[in-house]
Amino acid sequence: MIDIAESPASETTMNQAKHVWSACLSKLSERVNSQSYKAWLEPIVPMSLEAGVLTLQVPSHFFYEWIEEHYEEMITAVVGAVLGKDARVAYEIAKDDPPIESHADVAAVAPLPRSEPKSYPPQPESFRIGNAPPNHKRSGGSGSFQNFLNPRYTFENFIKGESNQFACAAATAVANNPGGTAFNPLVIYGGTGLGKTHLLQAIGNRVLQLHHNKRVIYVSSEKFTVEFVEAIQSDRINDFSAFYRSMDILIVDDIQFFAGKEKTQDSFFHTFNELHHLSKQVILSSDRPPKELNGLDDRLLSRFQWGLTADIQPPDLETRIAILQHKGKEQKIDLPVDVVECLAANINNNIRELEGCLISLLARASIQRREITVELAHEVLRHTIGQVKSPITIDEIQRNVCEYFSLPTDLLSAKTRKQEIVNARQIAMYLAKELTNSSLKTIGLHFGGRDHSTVIHAYQCVEDLMRVDMKYRSTVEQIRRRLETRTKV
After folding, report:
1. 201-227: per-residue pLDDT in tens?
2. What is the pLDDT of residue 187?
3. Which of 36, 248, 251, 466 gives a 20 to 30 Å CA spacing to 269?
4. Peptide bond preceding 315: is omega within 30 degrees of 0, i.e. cis?
5. Pairing assessment for the beta strands 53-58 and 45-50 based on DSSP bridges
6. Of 434, 439, 206, 487, which is closest to residue 322 (Cα–Cα)?
7. 268-292 pLDDT, tens per residue?
8. Which helix (H) or strand (E) holds 297?
């Protein structure tokens, strides 16, 4: 434990705070992995130490919320170990926290040291292969070129949810300060159709919105490979290399397709090194974490892990509903709630497929001059995915559980601790987590505004009892079968 009284009287409270926080970081580094440490602990700035209160500054509101949820208990324990059990931790938000979308900002980590940029010869526009709409053509730095960004892909129309919140926050931080955070490279990974391309291009569009003179390019790994091969064939490999190394922001989609292409990987390796050395921003996407990519050079994989890796998971039910409602508004169509819930309940892994199903629904309604109803939605779903099910809702689960135990449904939200009520409530929470895609927070709200930790506890209690009590297990399974039978169409 550090005794502050030993510090010289002339030492400022900030220096004391730095001394203490340095000791805390040493202990914290042993408890978290290097990526989490770099992303969430290094950016914290010690501000003062007065009367046993260590004040720490965090870069943004989102950053504070993340720390509070994931690391506050650990930080408090370590500070207590360093300063004594009566020590406390206080947080303040940096005054220059940028005003960006709610829940979409993230730590603005201190800029990395920049080297003097090298100047490259102007690249003729004809070097770029492929065609793009005229509004995709940007001039800046050295000449005009096609950036292949789709202007429709923005942060404003990217629907955020628990499944993509971290990736979106990191992307926003990079877009607001390209090359100036520790998130370089930023690697976003996830399955097909989850919004990786949208998020990557949103970064490029935001950068161009804020910095008109920045050179930004979006390219798929396939296009990069094709251009590299054509450059070799036309003896313009130097032009190819100089062009990509003159970028301020390089965005490469689907890097898993570099696998097995040794010459392309070698070219990209040197381009990456040059851009990173100049503190230019590199943004990548793949269908899995970099460490799981096969067929890529180890030196490339190690560099992909230098910055931040963020994943996008399949969207939860609320996010899928929000996506459909947003698309309906874009089409100036007020979609019935039951239709939206039906589509969202049946397509849960692929946003692209979800949007395609909605387009098919709107097309049928228009061509056949029919109202947009659940029946029409069922027709489209049968054609798209085969078997159709109606969504199981938390309200329906509550009704079924209460019917089984002959209880009024309002008791599930009451504060009573009667054993039969607690038992029914826990089973209902368990089934809500099992049979819906609702978040823990949403489930808790349906049970009288209870905390997500209560839902986790209920789920664990039911699982434990089902392992040891066959009669209890039979009860839960009976209610579950009743729910699943009622929702088949």
Report:
1. 999 999 999 988 899 999 999 999 999
2. 95
3. 36
4. no
5. antiparallel
6. 439
7. 999 999 999 999 999 999 999 988 8
8. none
What pLDDT does 192 receive? 84
Torsion angle defined by CA atoms of residues 128, 133, 138 and 143, in that order, rounded to the nearest 10 degrees = 40
Which of 405-433 are b and which e, b meaning 16 or more Cβ less than 10 Å from the residue's Cβ?
Answer: bebeeebbeeeeeeeebebbbbbbbbbbb
Could you give the CA distance from residue 381 to residue 198 in angstroms, rounded to a whole number? 25
Q: Nearest CA to 324 among 363, 360, 364, 351?
A: 351
- Write 385-391 long-range contacts (CB < 8 A, 24+): 385/346, 385/347, 388/342, 388/346, 388/489, 389/345, 389/346, 389/487, 389/488, 389/489, 390/342, 390/345, 390/487, 390/488, 390/489, 391/317, 391/341, 391/342, 391/344, 391/345, 391/346, 391/436, 391/487
DSSP character string of 158-216 = SPP-TTTHHHHHHHHHHHHSTTSSS--SEEEEE-TTSSHHHHHHHHHHHHHHH-TT--E
Residue 93 β-bridge partners = 58
- Amino acid identity, position 405: F
User: Which tokens belong to 174?
Assistant: 């990079």
Q: What is the pTM of this model?
A: 0.56
Asked if 180 and 107 touch (Cβ cutoff 8 Å), the reply is no
Kindly tell me the burial class for residue 443, based on how many C-beta atoms sit within 10 Å of its own C-beta (0-12, 13-18, 19 or more).
buried
Q: Which residue has the higher pLDDT, 146 or 217?
A: 217
Q: How confident is the model at residue 460 (pLDDT cuts 50, 70, 90)?
A: very high
Count of Cβ atoms closer than 10 Å to residue 337 Cβ: 10
